[in-house]
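The freezer alarm interrupted the setup, so I double-checked each line after restarting. Inputs confirmed:
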Amino acid sequence: MSNTRMLMEMRTVLEKEFFERPAPAVAPELLGMYLVRRSGATEHAYMITEVEAYEGYDDRASHASKGKTARTAVMFGPPGRWYVYLVYGMHEMLNVVTGADGHPAAVLIRGVEGIEGPGRLTKRLGITRAENTLPATKATGLWIEDRGVRIAPHQIQKTPRIGVAYAGEWAHKPWRFVLDKSSSRR
DNA sequence: ACGATGATGAAC
DNA sequence: TTCATCATCGTA
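Predicted 3D structure, all chains:
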């Protein structure tokens, strides 16, 4: 079997260790990975194209900055679990918990190939708070796969996070990472 | 530019 | 128990 063929067929479910790092390190590496959804017999995979990092207690844009509560408890738990919450009374937001157990951090998945916007994404894939706290590292209902796509640094656009103007200095951190289609060829 | 729509956290 | 706020989106 050729090397190329092996790469093309590579399908590795991301493990807990992948997520056991600071969110700003994990987030850009999720670009090019595949969000995989199984509903009954059908399975769909979507390449991740837009993410945001929320890191630690001090990040005022993060829900964790208010401390551990019923909602945010999962952020304080082990890495590699889903954190799904409702915002504006109608949109479910999909996050993966990162960092060591006890350290609150997560990456918000804001977009995948063909679906722009965190609310649209969860609606299209049928993701709700029912997924909250479930592992993102088991190939059951919803998980993330490495399918061999490698993203070069010049294809990643860094910007401040969206919708966090209330967060003071933290609003300026360049912790939103977008896969830039126009720079995908060199 | 604005309203929808309900959970959350903090104040009372 | 009430209140302001919210990691957004569709319609105007």
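Quick read of the result. The radius of gyration of chain A is 16 Å.
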